[in-house]
Amino acid sequence: MPVADESTADDETVNFVRLALFYAWHVASSAGLKAQLLLGMNGTTAAAFRRITVNQLPALVATEAVHLSARWSGCAALLERAHRSSVARRSGGAAPRAIYGLQLAAAARLSNP
Questions:
Q1: How many CB atoms lie within 10 A of CB 9?
Q2: Which residues, other chains included, contact 27 with Cβ-Cβ below 8 Å and sequence gap of 6+?
Q3: Residues 26 and 54 in one domain
Q4: Share of the chain above pLDDT 90, in %
Q5: Element of type H or E holding 63
Q6: Helices 43-51 + 11-29 axis angle, to 10
Q7: Are 72 and 79 in contact (CB under 8 A)?
Q8: Does residue 1 form part of some domain?
């Protein structure tokens, strides 16, 4: 088994990636379309997660933590929408977070057909 190089990502990022990959693996490991419906994961990625064991996740964390970035950081319209939603939540008139997440996922799909 090869030894992974030490990650250049900070501890907070590595911890987040570890949790996110474990969650994604856990959801994808169940049969059916859960990963696709809950996480927007494509079928190929879900199948790849199903082929690995939980013991293989630390190596994946080590290689993938350096690739983590803000998904919509370059989209001014989405950042403005996020800011308005944040202000609305603080003032008590918020849309459910799940709907907001779906809006972001839909916008990402529309901008990258």
A1: 18
A2: 34, 35, 38, 39, 41
A3: yes
A4: 28
A5: helix 57-64
A6: 100
A7: yes
A8: no
